[in-house]
Amino acid sequence: MTPSTTDKGVAAQDSFILYGQAIASRLLLGTALYASPEVMSAAVAAARPNVLTVSLRRESSRDAGAGQHFWDLVKSYGAYLLPNTAGCHTAREAITTAQMAREIFETDWIKLEVIANDDTLQPEVFGLAEAAEVLYRDGFKVFPYCTEDLSVAERLLSAGCEVLMPWAAPIGTARGLLNPYALRSLRGYFPDTPLIVDAGIGAPSHAAEAMELGFDGILLNTAVARAGNPVSMALAFAKAIEAGRLAYKAGLMPQRDMASPSTPLPGLAFRDR
Question: What does pTM read for this prediction?
C-alpha cells in the first residue's frame, strides 16, 4: 500500500486514522463509471483524496493490457487503495474475492460488500458479519459496507472491524440521508469508531449534512463520475465535506420550536398601533 504524496502535509489536528494510517482527506473516491481515464485523473486531481476504491471484478473483466494500464494509473496517484468485493452475494464469494484482491492490489485493506438484493443492493448483514470475522483472522483490515443498524454495527466491531461504512441510501440512488435519526444514533453509540458514509450520496449538500452529524468521511463514486462535469463535482464534494466537518467542530446551534430574535428587544422603537 503506497502512502499518498499529500500525507507529508497532513494537518495533524484534523486527520483521522484508518487502521493506523493518518488520512488527510475525508473524501474517499471510487474509480468506476468515468467516461475516460483522463476524466478520472482530472477528478482525482481536483478532489485530492487519500483513498481510492477499486473493483477486482471490473478489472478482471478487462483485457490484460487495459487492466495493467488502469493499475499503473491508480498507482500513480499515490493514494491508499481500497479494493472492494462488489457483486458478491455470499460470505464465501466475498472471502475469495478479498483474497484475490490482496494479491493483485498488494494491500490488506478491503471494502467488504455482501449484497442481499440486486434491486436495492442492500447489505446481507449475516454474510457480511461472517465474512468480516474470517477475513479479520486472515489479517485483513476490513471496511464493511453495512446498514445503520446498531446491532449489526456491534457484531461487525466484535468481529474485528475498526471502521464502519453505513449507507445513507441504496447505492447509486442519490437520495441522500434517508434516516438521519439512525445515523445520528450510530454516531452517538460509537463515538470512537471511524464512521464513513458509503452509498446514496447524490449532492454536496448530502455530504455536508452527514459530516455535520459527526461522521468521519464520505465515500463517493457515482455522484461524481456521472455528473455533467465530474471534475467540478469532485471539487464541490471536497469543499462540502470540508465545510461540514468545520461546522461540526464549530458546534451547530440547536434547533428551536419558537423564533429567537437576533436583535435584543429592549430599547427598540415601536410604531404605535
Answer: 0.86
CA distance 183 to 195: 10
What are the residue numbers of the active site?
A: 111
Per-position pLDDT tens, the chain of length 273: 444 444 444 444 578 999 999 999 999 999 999 999 999 999 999 999 999 999 886 555 555 556 678 888 888 898 999 999 999 999 999 999 999 999 988 999 999 999 998 888 899 999 999 999 999 999 999 999 999 999 999 999 999 999 999 999 999 999 999 999 999 999 999 999 999 999 999 999 999 999 999 999 999 999 999 999 999 999 999 999 999 999 999 998 888 888 877 766 666 655 555
C-alpha cell at 228: 455533467
Strands, E assignment, the chain:
16-18, 21-23, 27-30, 51-55, 80-84, 109-112, 141-146, 165-166, 196-198, 217-220
